[in-house]
Amino acid sequence: MILKLVLVLVTTLGVTLSKFPDVPYSDVRNISPINDGSYRIPNDTIPISYDILLEPNFETFTFDGEVIITIEVVEDTSTITLHANDLQIGTEDVEVDARNNEISPVVEDTEFVEDFHFFKIHLAEEVGAGEILEISIKYTGNLNTANRGFYRARYVENEIEKWFATTQFESTDARRAFPCYDEPALKATFTIRIIRPASYNSVSNMPLLEINDLGDGRFEDVFEESVLMSTYLVAFVVSEMAKTVVVENQAVIGVPFYINDGRGEFAQTTGIETVKAMEEFTGVQYTLDKLDQVAIPDNYFSAGAMENWGLVTYRESYLLYKDGISTSSEKQRIAAIISHEYGHQWFGNLVSPLWWTYIWLNEGFATYFEHYATDEVDPELRMMDQYVLLVNQYAMDNDALVSTRRMSYYAETPSDISRLFDRIAYEKSGSVIRMMEHFLTTATFRRGLNIYLNARGLKAAQASDLWEAMQQAISEESSTILGDLNIVDIMETWNMNTGFPVITVSRNEDGKVVLSQTRFFLDREAVDEDNPVWTVPINYYNADPENDFTDTRANYWLTAAEDTTDIDLADDEWFILNKQGIGYYRTDYSDELWSLNIDTLILLTTNGLY
């Protein structure tokens, strides 16, 4: 999901988030059906599949829904807890059937726990572990104006107001459209059915399977059953919008005037080439049989863009482009956002986070591919050349504040989860991922991603799964690139330490390079009493003609607060750390080295190398 626009506005207005509290670092779900104040679904039941029927009403701006959830009971329980928010459900509208038992459980009562968005189904008797249950729920909801959940939007065509319904579920709003297990790790399959007026059409994550004529001017669109996926990635749009001709299983959907005017063609072509670039880099084919992009009028889409699997949604201004009307900066922005959302089709959709703690596994990789894939599709945009400025520096501006947080950070409430979609999840994580690519080499990095995607595909992942995949890639090559270290030793310091270091470089009386590190703050009075130490990949550039500026592997690993290296440095020799700005740290030098380095830094900057 793209939220950079919001972050820019926050920065511009001078608003600083309050310091993130130090909360317990845990992703264990609460087994107790009582929940004891937790916002997490108890893990006494898990979902297997959903069959969802929805009918929006564009006169009353409401919708009728029916969902059949097939679940497995994994702990004996007499209460089934689901998520539901702003839905109307009566006890008489709930039925529970036992698939492998002649006697079905009796629904004794139902209960909304509104503060936690829980809908609890209380059974007359306990159901044992191993039972497969089908929960049928009929309900109603509102097509809201909040741009989240299942909501209404509009455009004007020939002076006629056209209303339509669309979705935005990330991170905790699928529960506004249907009762569900609204947590990213609780994947299931989804069959979506939409009842619509004859003049409308509908699209969802999966290809359309069949259209049933209901005989009264209404039609039912039935979509193919999905692969295993998270609730926040489910999407559907019911509208009278137009669609480009499908090319290589991709199309762009939007207001008819814009589509007929050719403004979806750039996005469609870019999307096709971006899929090819992603498949080539990861070695993993795109999973679904189609990938549509939908342009939503800007006022009705708060997120910017959303990576719904197979049905990516965008603000119109972030997707539609036409030569002679759109600017070159708009072209770059649109191409980059498409690459970001398409990167999510692998990182976030195919492999989803175990919990929102690891949202950086989604957004960090999407930020990386926002630049890499755009570079592959349109090299003239030189997106990777802009990485340090647009990503590293942008991240550091915020990460140097006392109010920052570590990358893997636990949150439970919907509001706290929303706060995790910040520069740490996007730009810092993207910077750290790029740093890892450079010290591992691109070939090893790509192999690690291939292992990660194949091992965790259609499942959920946490940081350790990524480290394990990278370590396996290193081991396969019998690489000594990390010396005595392993990938966990290195990456967990960047994952779990708050902020980032400034590396100070000096020369001692013996002519050796001395390196020291401390956490960098914009506020010079600030102190981190934890005295964090990072495992820092050090590369350097000097006058040695054999020192290749394009070789960004680590020459040295700084693992302590201060260390005297074995690098010799003459009295008059310049010495510059962090070639190509690949390291996520700032560099300071002794006065002596600043004097020697300044001319070289100016030359490198002039030549576009630094």
Automatic annotation (TrEMBL):
Listed PANTHER family: AMINOPEPTIDASE, PROTEASE M1 ZINC METALLOPROTEASE
Protein name: ERAP1-like C-terminal domain
Molecular function GO labels: metalloaminopeptidase activity; peptide binding; zinc ion binding
One Pfam assignment: Peptidase_M1
Lineage: Eukaryota, Metazoa, Ecdysozoa, Arthropoda, Hexapoda
Active site positions: E341 (proton acceptor)
Source organism superkingdom: Eukaryota
CDD domains: M1_APN-Q_like
Alphabetically ordered keywords of this record: Aminopeptidase, Cell membrane, Glycoprotein, GPI-anchor, Hydrolase, Lipoprotein, Membrane, Metal-binding, Metalloprotease, Protease, Signal, Signal-anchor, Transmembrane, Transmembrane helix, Zinc
